[in-house]
Amino acid sequence: MICSDKDILAVLSSSLDACAIYDSADLRISYASTNMLKLWNCDHSAIGQYLENCLQQEELTSYIPLLKNVWGNENTQLIDKIKIKLKTEQQSSLRYTHTFEYHPLINEKGEIYGIFNQIRLLPENEDSHPLTQEKNTIERKLLQDLLTQKYTIAGNHYKIPTSNYTLSPKHTEDLNEKLKDALKKIIESEEHYHFALQSAEMGTWNLNCKNYMVNWDERTRELFGFAKGEYVPYNEVLKYIHPEDRNRIDQEVKKSLTYQNKGVYDVQFRTIGAQDLQLRWLHCKGRVYFDQDQQPEWFAGTAIDITTPHQEHEKLEAINQLIAKRDQQFRMIVEAAGIGIFSIDMETKKMELNDRCRELFGFHQHDNIKEADFFAQILPQYRNIIQHVFQEVTRKQSPFDCQCEIKDKKTGKIKWLRSIGGSQLESDTTRHMIYGAIIDNTNDKEEERKKLDFISIASHELKTPLTSLIAYIQLLQAKEGTLSSEKRMQYLHQSNEQATRMRGLIDGFLNVTQLNEGKLVLRKKTFNVCSLLDYIQNIYSLKSVKHFIHYSGAIDSNLEIIADRDKIEQVLINFMDNAIKYSPSNSTITMHVAIHSGYFEVEIKDQGKGINHKDQKQIFNKFYRVNDEADRYASGFGIGLFICKEIIHKHQGEIGVDSQIGQGSTFWFKIPVSV
Question: 0.85 exceeded by the pTM?
Answer without folding.
Answer: no
